[in-house]
Amino acid sequence: MNERKTEDIVREHFKNDVCCKKNKIILEEQTSENPLIAKLLKNASEYGKAGGKPDFIIQYKDNTNFLIVIECKAGIKNHISREGNNCVSYAVDGVKLYSGCLSKSFDVLSIAVSGTDRDNLKINHFLQLKGGGGRPESVFGGKLLSLKAYLEGYKKDDRKFKQDFSELLDYSKALNNALHGLKIKESQRSLLIAGALIALNDGAFNASYKIETDYKKLINNFLNAVSLQLKNADNRYIIEEVGISYSFLKTHTILSRDVSVLKNLIKEIDGKINSFIKNYKYFDALEQFYIEFLRYANNDKGLGIVLTPPHITELFCELANINKDSVVLDNCAGTGGFLISAMQKMVRDSKGDNVKESEIKREQIVGIELQDDIFTLLCSNMHIHGDGRSNLYKGSCFDGEIIKEVEKFKANAGFLNPPYKSDKKDREELEFVLNNLSLLEKGSKCIAIVPMSCALTEKGNRLVLKEKLLSMHTLEAVFSMPNELFFNSKIGVSTCIMVFIAKERHPVNYKTYFGYWKDDGFTKRKTNGRADYNNKWNSIKSEWLKNYKNRDEVIGHSVKKEVGAGDEWCVEAYMETDYSVLKKADFENAVREYLSFLLKYSENAGNVSIKSESGCSKTMDLNVGRWKKFRYKDIFNISRGRSNEEDYGNKSLMIGASQNENGSNGEFIEAKPYYEKQAITVGNGGNTGCGQTFFQSLPFNAKSTVNILDLKSRVLNPFIALFLVTLIRLEKYRFNFGRGWSLERMKEDVIKLPVTPLGGPDFQFMQDYIKTLPYSSSL
Q1: Between the CA of residue 757 and those of 520, 622, 625, 647, 765, what are the distances in Å?
Q2: Which CATH superfamily, name and number, covers 301-512?
Q3: Distance between CA 160 and CA 151 in Å, rounded?
Q4: pLDDT value at position 28?
Q5: What is the spatial order of strands in the sheet that 651-655 belongs to?
């Protein structure tokens, strides 16, 4: 069979493509005049592919990081080998080898084509991104597509987005360091980036800035370009603020010394950021940049700036069912994350209707922002993402004039992440929620993300605000969010999302839906921060939304509960602990941890003998379905940890809320032990420490960060204690930095226990069960 026929079919397909006819690509055969491509292909010969000569190589002139490489075979049977390593005789094997070599410096789409009948070709596509770390992954299906389709598909590939986004964040750190070196303040850095991106949209500035040699002229041209672009919106607030916000460039000492410094910054921003924004139009790149600046140089905590991660702004749109007819208000707009996500969803729902899309941007996006520099960033960000600036208001959302203006829009969806209170004089977060609700049409949804403390308060001004909210609006749902959601902004605050129905009084006997949304699948990495590295978010989000929309009660995840203003508005207070997850291994782990600690810290450690045998040979089932609930206060004496003052040279253990070394973290103090008898210690505060539970048999002192538990009805022994420790540990999910396990809360909380025929706690069962476990003979 003649391989040339296959090559002719492929050559004809791409030669007749519009991109080729318009000279937008470079089509080469066997070899390349690009020295880097030629060098990389030489490596293919080392793996049995003589000369490293693919049948076709395609380069895009405007997308030089992306290559297409094609390998042809005449026979269908020579498409792919069973082992996948016969690079000479099989099309797929060979093209994957080329891809592996070229992907060291390029993103590569490799195409394997076999057959000589154009209607019965065997075709496979594989995409391998730059760096060589990832394997080629199948894409596009089994037909040859247009060059435009390949390019667009490559740009929309989720892996490509993640790669580009990772590179963008890496660059944000480098750029931040560069701007820091130039003595540009944190509050001005994002403005400079946004201004550069806007100015580059002005044709005259874009064409002239690279050749400008006078700094004053460059700055004037820059400011004129930004002003011209932003003033296109009929918005007096923008006109007033643009010149003020960017005026620092006129007098900046370092920048004004050498015109090339600013020119090079603008050129770099164009190459690194502008291309990303153009490829991913509705992704909030500037929001991410600002988050990165706060990560690397956060001096703005005192301003209460907490920027919402993009996956949460998108989640808000799903919760509110945003569509093309929505009118969205954010009365604490910040840099526009919520408004951009809403605009994205609304535009998509308009399905290409240009008239409707224009109406959305002109009449259906409403934002209010108080801070000068953030307002300019907001305007800039909206402009970069396709406008929506007409109804942005500079000032306080409590200002009477602004309220009158905003009410005219009859907003039917409200979003906000209000300024987090950092000073006694600051407004309460719930005041901003009430303000947002007051500006919405009756029956509209208001969704706010606020500190968990707003949901927990049972007294003071916050209680008054909770009462006011329920007297005028319906609390439909509350979701407890991940503890480190704002890690990338260097903000350590536990938060929840509250969903209200505007201007419909909270009904009597109404059950609010509470969700435990603590795990969004995101993880932390030292250099790149918190992100969805394992691609879990989309499936988690779908499950969350399904349960919310159906109001499903799922053990360990959600519950419906009647609440009033004086109650806690969080799932942790009401969700039933799932005891069915208990396994024998959980109890075994508690036994081994305790014995390891005892072996290390006991004064008689040299005489301690650890044996793997159990205390008895029988086996026992837990049968948790037969257990009954008891209040902690009915089972335990509970007190706050105490310590003796340092008064003599002997050391004693100091137990705190640590997860290490039985709660001690290896800490000793020179003091007489306050506790001489055996007890259980439970951490009562902090994200990590709260709920850390251990059995203490050695004399110890304790910090106030732990609660001390002993049994009311009998003496605690190691067997019963380790059984109870395992159960109490199940409750850890209920607590975090914003919601501690206080004495009052613990006394009223409930624990499930095995029961006797008379209905009391079956301590004998607990003791006997632990005795069946490995190592229990050493207790």
Answers
A1: 43, 15, 15, 50, 12
A2: Vaccinia Virus protein VP39 (3.40.50.150)
A3: 12
A4: 93
A5: 668-670, 651-655, 700-702
